[in-house]
Amino acid sequence: MHPELITEDQAWDLIQTKIASATAEQRQQIQQKIKSSMNIEKNGDETVATFSDISIENAYISVLDPSALIVSARKTGTSKIVWHGAAKKGNLDLYLSAGMLNKLKKGSISAGVGIVMTALLYAAGGPAGGFAAASLNAALKFVVGAVIKENIKHFKAGRIMKIRNWKYKGMSYQ
What we know:
By secondary structure, the protein is an alpha+beta fold. It has helices at residues 8-18, 24-37, 53-64, 98-106, 109-121, 130-149; strands at 4-7, 39-43, 46-52, 68-71, 78-84, 92-96, 159-164, 167-173. It is built from 6 helices and 8 strands. β5 and β6 (92-96) form a beta hairpin. The termini are far apart.
């Protein structure tokens, strides 16, 4: 059987429609694939987890629709998470590429938050659950909601979202 070739845009649409019905086992498989695709570096008290947008999409698609294969004709964006100190303190910068922002803009806030949360929760040093996950989820709802509602049709530059002590503290351009 030959794989079905799909574009990145088709992949993103597929992810958003199938993520709500993903089983716990599928979510765990996705999380493991995302974790294994990240480049993680320690720099003093900082932990930096870098990942390409296409690696996130591939992690989802390979589990949610294994018969599909993403074909990318353009340069893929790179996003990263920089944890400042111990992750449990909730000090991080989330760098989202213009491509990821454009994809988030197309979808719903809950789907966008779910996709980004999966990457964050399993990055090196990331929180594993409880208060930290709930706090980060609330901050991300605000951030992703702000991105989706922003009066921009197409992002040309990425954004840096600053979260300190589990609270959203602002956004700047990359």
